[in-house]
Amino acid sequence: MELHQVRYFLAVASTLNFTRAAEQCNVTQPALTKGVQKLEQELGGQLIYRERRLTQLTDLGKEVLPMLERTLASAEAVRRRAQEFQRKDVAPLKIGLAPSISASLVLDPIAEIAKFVPGLHVELREGAAEKLVDLLLEGEINAAMVGDVQDMPDRIDDWSLFEERYVAVLAPTHQLANRPSIGIDDLRETILLKRAECDVALKIQRAYFPEETLHPGHCSGNDLHLQHMAAAGFGVILAPEHMPRLPTLKTIPLEGDLVSREVRLLAVQGRRYSPALDAFVKVARLRDWSFEVPDRGVPHATVPEAARAPA
Amino acid sequence: MTTTRTPAATRFQPIDQQPDDAPPMPNQADKTLAQTRTELLSTFSAADWESYNHLVGWLRDTNVASYALKVGDDAPDFLLPDADGRLHSSEQLRRNGPLVLSFFRGGWCPFCTAELCALQAAKDEFESAGATLAVVTPETRDFPRQLKRSLGLDLKVLSDVDYGVAMSYGVLFRVPYETKAHYSGLGFDFGVRHGSPVWMLPIPATYVIDAEGRIRSAFVEPDFTIREEPAQILSSLRQATFMSK
To answer: Which end of chain B is more exposed for a tag (fewer CB within 10 A), N or C?
Structure first.
C-alpha cells in the first residue's frame, strides 16, 4: 500500500466527506477517490459506503482504521520529531504507573528516548489501573503501565510486555525468613500486609483462599509504606519481583511460583502519538524486560506464550 | 493430519521453536541464495505450493510492488528500536557511508533466515566497503532477540513496530485471507508477533541508501522466495561508492 492512499482514506474517515477530504489532502477529488479505490482493491473490499449524501465506513473500513492510523502516525513521527527539534519545542510525555509498577522500570527506556527526543519532559503519575485508563481516555496521560485490568475499553491499545512472578518480602527476623520458599499454608498462618487497590490481591484471594479471610494486616496504597511496615516486622508483603526493595528486607520465592502477572503497556487507539510517545511505545515493545531483575540465574520475566489474542 | 508431507515451515524449524542450545544453522556461505531457494522449494508440500502461488499471484495482480520506492527517490528517515530496545536513527546509520537496508518477513520464514545467514556471512565485506547493514522485521517483543540468538547473528535487527517504515518505503501489504489461514494453520500468529490485530507483511526488499539519503539501488521482489544475493548488493554498493566519488 502507498502512504498517500492511506492518508486519503484516513481523511475521508475523519471528515466523512470526499470534497473536504480532498481539500484537506490538497488533491483533486478524483485523485483522492482513485487512491482510496486502489487501497480498497488491495485490502480486498470496500472501505467506505458512498450512497448519495451518506458517506460512512464499512465494517472492513472500521476494522483496518485503527491500524492504519497507527502505521501512518508511526511513519510521520520522524518528520514531526525533526520539526520539534527545529522549533526547540518541549516534548512532554506523561506516563501513568499502577502502584505495583516501580518507576525504576521505565527509567532506562526514558533515558533511551531522551537521546533522540530533545526537550523530552517526562511526568510520572501513579494510580490504580482503572483510574489510569480514565486518565488515558481524558488525555491526561499518554501511556500507562499496569498489571491485570478487569475491563479494558475497546479504545485502549494493550500490549503485553512481560510476565513476572510475585515473591514474599519480609524482615530478616520474621519467622519465615529462613525458608527456601514459602507455601500457601505458611501464608494462611501469617499476617499479610495488604496493598490497597492491588490488582492481584483479588486474584490471590480467589485462587488460594476462596473460603476464608486471611489474617488482616495493616494496609497502604503506597509500596514504600508497606516495605517500611514489613521491615518493622508487621508482616509479609507479596510483591512483584521487579519492585526495588529496602536493603533491610529479604525476598523469598513462593513455592511453585504461585502467583504471576503480566505487565502491560496501554495507549489510546487512534490518537496521534507525539514523537516522544511513539519512541517510548516502540522501545517498550522491544525491550528485554527480564533485565530488570539481574540477581537471579534464570530469566524469569519471560514473554508469555500467548498474549491477549488479537481480533 | 493425514498428509504424508509436513509443511515446509515445520521441517525448517521456525527459529523461535528451537531451544536456546540448538545448533546454529549450517553454514550456507558457500551456497548462493538461489541454490538455497531451490532446496527449500523442493521441500514444499502441496499446501505450501498452493499458498505460495496464491500469494505471489495476488501480489502480482494487485501490483503491490509498484508502490515501492525506486532508485533516485529520497529514502524516508526513521527511528526504530533494535532487538534490545536501543534506538537507531537513519541519519546515524548512513552518517559515515551507504546504508544497506533490507526488509524481511520474520524469523518464522525459512527464506528470510537463509537470507539473514547469507548477509551475516557477508557482513565484513559490507563493512570494508564502508557500508552499514541493517535488517528490518515487523516482529516485536522478544522475537527479534530469539532470532538473533538462534542464528548467531550480530546484525542490526531493527523492529518496524506498527509497520510505519515498511509503509513509507511502499513495501507493506495486508496479508490476504487465504494466506492468513495458511500461516495460522502452521502456528504463526502475526497478531502476537507484530502486536497488531491487522496482519501485514513487507515484500522482501533491499535498498542501498547513500550518505545523503538518496536511494542508489532497489531490489523489490513480490516473489518472497527470491532475495538479492549479497554479492549483488556488494556490487551495487561499490558502484554507488564509485559514482559518488
So the answer is: C
Whole-angstrom CA distances from A107 to A285, B14, B81, B83, B95 are 15, 34, 16, 19, 28
Q: Contact B171/B202 with Cβ under 8 angstroms?
A: yes
Question: Given an 8 Å threshold on Cβ–Cβ distance, is A285 in contact with B64?
Answer: no
Residue A143: helix, strand or coil by DSSP?
strand
Split at pLDDT 50, 70, 90, the class of A215 is low
**CB A300 within 8 Å of CB A165:** yes
| Across A214-228, average pLDDT | 84
A301: Cα within 13 Å, side-chain hemisphere: 26
Q: What band does A90 get if pLDDT is binned at 50, 70 and 90? A: confident
pLDDT at B244: 57
CB contacts under 8 A, A 156-185 vs B, are: 159-160
pLDDT tens profile A243-261:
999 999 999 999 887 788 8
Q: Phi/psi of residue B154, each to 5°?
A: -120, 40
- Nearest chain A CA: its distance from B158 CA (Å): 10
For chains A and B, count residue pairs whose Cβ atoms are closer than 8 Å: 129
The pLDDT of residue B156: 97
* DSSP annotation string for B137-206: ES--TTHHHHHHHHHT--SEEEE-GGGHHHHHTT-EEEPPHHHHHHHHHTT--HHHHHT-SS-EEEPPEE
C-beta separation of B127 from B241 below 8 A = no
Q: How confident is the model at residue A229 (pLDDT cuts 50, 70, 90)?
A: very high
Closest to B134 (Cα-Cα) out of B181, B179, B88, B95: B88
Give the SS3 label for residue A232. coil
Distance CA A153, CA A139 (A): 15
Instruction: Extract the C-alpha cell encoding B130.
Output: 564502508
Q: CA of B16: which chain A residue's CA is closest?
A: A305
- Return the C-alpha torsion angle A211, A217, A218, A222, nearest 10: -70
What is the enclosing helix (H) or strand (E) of B135? strand B132-137
b/e map A153-179, b = 16+ CB within 10 Å = eeebbbbbbbbbbbbbbbbeebebeee
With cut-offs at 50, 70 and 90, classify the pLDDT of residue B9. very low
Retrieve residue A205's grid coordinates: 484471594
Nearest CA in chain B to A71: B164
More confident residue, A294 or B59: B59
Is A2 within 8 Å of chain B by CB?
A: yes
Residue with cell 521482489: B221
Report the gap between the CA of A290 and the closest CA in chain B (Å).
Answer: 10
Claim: this prediction has a pTM higher than 0.80: yes
CB contact under 8 A, B142 and A303: yes
